[in-house]
Write a structure and sequence with these properties.
Elements lengths: L1 E3 L7 H9 L4 E4 L4 E4 L4 H18 L5 E3 L5 E2 L5 E2 L3 E4 L13 E8 L4 H13 L6 E6 L4 E6 L8 E6 L3 E4 L4 E4 H4 L14
Parallel strand pairs: 8-9
Antiparallel strand pairs: 1-3, 2-3, 4-7, 5-6, 7-8, 9-10, 10-11, 12-13
Length: 194
């Protein structure tokens, strides 16, 4: 869930400087900061599992995975902070934005569906380099995988459940979906085994 703060309109660079001085986490809607609320334990575990799965599989390749502190520039000056992003382009250690992101992951909760399934879907579609946008459920084990072969094409969506494998041919890896849910508890259903 997010809350838009009412502050004067700013540029992306002004936002970066402003955000570094704040105590919380923010995205930038192209005009002003948008406060990001904290997630629950499942959200955090899934985001960590995504990072661990990607980091190990990408070791030794030209691609790199980043967590929720690496920005992705979308429409206009908008900056999003997905739960996982992969870029295969070189970048400086001081970079605030992932150059040419190829795959983006968003972990969603019961109240963030509209933002992630509609607003961010459209924003990520505007980024020519993004080939796959993976929406990861946190209330149950399942993914919505939005993919396209080239910039400007419409997304093709498919789903994957815990007994399937997430295919990421753009970066040459595969991840069992269950691996993204290790240690996650779904109420009375219990945790997916590690």
């Amino acid at each position: 869930m997010s809350l838009t703060l009412r502050v004067p309109t700013m540029t992306r660079d002004q936002f970066f400087d402003w955000a570094e001085a704040q105590g919380g986490r923010y995205e930038f809607d192209g005009f002003q900061p948008v406060a990001m609320t904290g997630g629950n334990a499942n959200h955090n575990r899934i985001a960590l599992n995504i990072h661990v799965a990607l980091h190990g599989r990408l070791r030794g390749t030209k691609c790199q995975s980043f967590g929720m502190d690496m920005g992705v520039a979308t429409v206009g000056d908008t900056v999003r902070y997905p739960d996982g992003v992969i870029t295969c382009s070189p970048m400086a250690g001081t970079s605030r934005l992932a150059p040419n992101p190829v795959v983006v992951f968003e972990v969603i909760g019961p109240t963030s569906g509209h933002m992630d399934r509609i607003v961010k879907l459209r924003g990520y579609a505007a980024v020519a380099s993004i080939r796959r946008y993976v929406i990861v459920e946190s209330a149950s084990a399942g993914l919505t995988v939005n993919m396209r072969q080239a910039a400007g094409q419409r997304w093709t969506a498919t789903s994957a459940t815990a007994d399937e494998t997430l295919m990421l041919p753009e970066i040459g890896i595969e991840i069992p979906v269950a691996e993204l849910y290790e240690g996650v508890e779904f109420g009375t259903l219990g945790a997916i085994p590690a």
